[in-house]
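Structure in, sequence out. Go:
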């Protein structure tokens, strides 16, 4: 049984991770200010302690780290919306970068012994560079406050780890989808929006011709990756792409969904979203080398997702 801290544990990815940790009998502490996450995403369990709190509260974070003896720390709390980061660059920075560095700083100063700290970055760091697939060594071009903070923090986490001998690792998520992805915002992941339209038989808007592709990766594969990266003690001070390693167009997604649900999706086309990238997908060889095998292709992932409603 391990003691695990998940910041942002009430969010889409965090809460799915928490479920898996509890299943494995771990003792889990979640810190989440519920700005994006939902309390209802969390199960009630004697294995779970929940603090509705911002990670930017230094006193709180310091006390928490000093009183609990965490084996593993997953840093998922973030302003997850790129648009939000553009509207509130300074606040985003406090949360997406500064608060995470503060956690590292407490661990360094107080010489806290952790088995692994995992930071969650994003494929957004690659920006608009069109060489595909994206390797971890590909050029980065972070274009928004969100992407800049993600990239800078990822570097901090890795180099802090190297400099002060703290076992850290970072991941770059591609387009994660699955149960609990919040479809409420217009900036939600497209698959949660498509799902809502199929569910409510409402019209779905395709920006552009629908031929744009993404590396859609199902939440359970993401959890698999997070597990491998924390449990493999030799894997430190590196960054890993987390994707399915394939790319699928929006039109293909819709076709697949229609055949799974036997429902026809009404679509309208609007102009391409400004700044949208055309194609994106991950090279995941580095992750495969430590044992990762994506188990859900787009059809399997959508089937699972659909079953959750
Ligand atoms: C993701 C981020 C985006 C960021 C980009 C940078 C999310 C939800 N989006 O965008 O903020 O700038 O990475 O890497 O995290 N689409 C539609 N109809 C819709 C919604 C989306 O056609 O209602 C299209 C989009 O125009 C896009 C594709 O679907 O071409 C995927 O959109 P999205 O899920 O937002 O992902 P990214 O474009 O990868």
């Amino acid at each position: 049984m391990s003691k695990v801290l998940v910041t942002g544990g009430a969010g889409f990815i965090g809460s799915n991770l928490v479920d898996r940790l509890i299943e494995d009998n771990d003792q889990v502490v979640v810190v989440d200010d519920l700005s994006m996450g939902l309390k209802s995403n969390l199960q009630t369990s004697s294995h779970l302690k929940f603090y509705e709190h911002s990670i930017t509260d230094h006193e709180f974070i310091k006390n928490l780290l000093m009183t609990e003896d965490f084996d593993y720390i997953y840093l998922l709390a973030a302003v997850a919306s790129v648009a939000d980061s553009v509207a509130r660059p300074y606040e985003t920075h406090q949360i997406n970068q500064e608060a995470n560095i503060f956690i590292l700083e407490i661990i360094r100063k107080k010489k806290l012994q952790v088995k692994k700290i995992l930071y969650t970055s994003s494929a957004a760091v690659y920006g608009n560079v069109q060489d595909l697939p994206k390797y971890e060594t590909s050029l980065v071009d972070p274009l928004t406050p969100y992407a800049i903070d993600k990239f800078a923090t990822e570097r901090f986490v890795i180099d802090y780890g190297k400099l002060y001998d703290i076992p850290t690792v970072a991941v770059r998520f591609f387009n994660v989808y699955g149960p609990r992805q919040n479809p409420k915002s217009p900036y939600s992941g497209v698959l949660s929006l498509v799902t809502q339209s199929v569910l409510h038989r409402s019209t779905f808007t395709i920006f552009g011709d629908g031929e744009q592709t993404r590396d859609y990766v199902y939440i359970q594969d993401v959890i698999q990756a997070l597990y491998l990266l924390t449990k493999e003690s030799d894997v430190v001070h590196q960054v890993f792409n987390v994707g399915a390693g394939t790319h699928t167009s929006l039109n293909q997604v819709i076709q697949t969904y229609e055949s799974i649900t036997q429902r026809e999706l009404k679509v309208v086309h609007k102009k391409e979203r400004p700044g949208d990238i055309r194609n994106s997908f991950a090279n995941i060889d580095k992750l495969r080398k430590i044992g990762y095998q994506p188990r859900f292709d787009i059809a399997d992932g959508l089937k699972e997702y659909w079953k959750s409603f």
